[in-house]
């Protein structure tokens, strides 16, 4: 039967609302999920799919050991920086980057206790001047939150650095912007609008530019490429320079990008999405490593390019389509396969430098699957409750329980069972119904069947079907009974008693009374679901059913309201058979003669 247009519109509205809700919720949850997933994929690829790099960064670290060997604080390490710049530039470093902030003052008034004539300012200035003809220099600048601008460096230093040519910014921002979970994944391009002055120049971009890779960078830092970083201690580089180890220094630095920064355990630590330090565990690492990994990304595969928001919307909407199709088990299997395929594809593309954030689709997919499964489960539960309320009016509570528990299964083949079949019919109802309006006929039948079916259920019987004003029931299936024949006869007697009460009510209402005939026969019958795959019913078929139907037809002829076969009388035993009157053998239409017995409430003293 076709659905009513209003029902189709309501269903379409529910489906549209479900799709929209799954998509919206997935998009809200996706960013946090994608961050965790991206970190997991970085870790997975570093462990199982290592990607070497062609051009790497040489990391020189200022560690606790260096600070323990010098007398001056780090801000006054002018002589060591100058010596380092001389050594690395002379060794052929292509670019030297300092993740350090140069002083704002000359410190002319400071005097070294061991070298009274030592000039801090001139020493560093001379080192800068000797370096620039040989190597590019890039120095970090940091933001002064109190003054709302980048901190200035001493004018002489700035003047020397401004002589650098070839479009490399000597002073570049060392700032990074973190995601809402404080981890640094994305390169701070101007479009992100996270840097104070939206500067396009960063320490990483200018190192890359000095190495011949100048472009407008945008995307995610590629934390999956290259091995874990190891650093050269600054003091070892200075010792090699003092000992004249020029060949060793050239092997370390010639043609390479050199990055200097602090690697102390408690200084300038940032949260990274991957463990990229070889000398310490965890992901809270010195900030110089972020610059190093960003430069490594730029000089090799480039930054990872994430797909835009439109893709996230599209993928979330595509995942929400799993709301459709009602087969839960199949849908869950498909959802698992789709999730695995999406994660695999995302990881493969990530290794190629493209990030397809899968969480929007995964979240909407599983939201759709689980919500639809919950909705379907609730509908099934409601439908079962509705069927229980409806079906319980036609079968006994025992049968209903077996149906609910799966004892009656439409997939099982029919089985031959010994049952007692009951047929009942209202006498002369056809002629009576011709005199009544259809509504009154239906109301009277419902009233009548409501009284007599309760008696069948009371004695453990199963109502098979209603045939006009007749009814077929059987006893002994699907629930077993100690004596189906006794239960059937007692039910038939109670049906007559109920009919007597109904007739009393009809007389009081001035309506015609009803007369009923009941036929009982016992024997084997095939019990099960009969019909097509589209329409079937739980019923009994066989000769036992046919005989019971023919016996009911003898009631009017023999003048007894209940007619039983000899098989019923025999199985009732002597006590039960004593209540019955033997009526001899009678021929049945389409069947050989059978012995019959009658039961009359008046003769039985009922």
UniProtKB/TrEMBL annotation:
<feature type="transmembrane region" description="Helical">
    <location>
        <begin position="307"/>
        <end position="325"/>
    </location>
</feature>
<dbReference type="GO" id="GO:0006171">
    <property type="term" value="P:cAMP biosynthetic process"/>
</dbReference>
<dbReference type="InterPro" id="IPR050697">
    <property type="entry name" value="Adenylyl/Guanylyl_Cyclase_3/4"/>
</dbReference>
<dbReference type="InterPro" id="IPR029787">
    <property type="entry name" value="Nucleotide_cyclase"/>
</dbReference>
<protein>
    <submittedName>
        <fullName>CHASE2 domain-containing protein</fullName>
    </submittedName>
</protein>
<keyword id="KW-0175">Coiled coil</keyword>
<feature type="transmembrane region" description="Helical">
    <location>
        <begin position="332"/>
        <end position="349"/>
    </location>
</feature>
<dbReference type="Pfam" id="PF00211">
    <property type="entry name" value="Guanylate_cyc"/>
</dbReference>
<dbReference type="InterPro" id="IPR001054">
    <property type="entry name" value="A/G_cyclase"/>
</dbReference>
<dbReference type="Pfam" id="PF05226">
    <property type="entry name" value="CHASE2"/>
</dbReference>
<keyword id="KW-0472">Membrane</keyword>
<dbReference type="InterPro" id="IPR007890">
    <property type="entry name" value="CHASE2"/>
</dbReference>
<dbReference type="GO" id="GO:0004016">
    <property type="term" value="F:adenylate cyclase activity"/>
</dbReference>
<feature type="coiled-coil region">
    <location>
        <begin position="485"/>
        <end position="512"/>
    </location>
</feature>
<dbReference type="GO" id="GO:0035556">
    <property type="term" value="P:intracellular signal transduction"/>
</dbReference>
<keyword id="KW-1133">Transmembrane helix</keyword>
<keyword id="KW-0812">Transmembrane</keyword>
<feature type="domain" description="Guanylate cyclase">
    <location>
        <begin position="420"/>
        <end position="552"/>
    </location>
</feature>
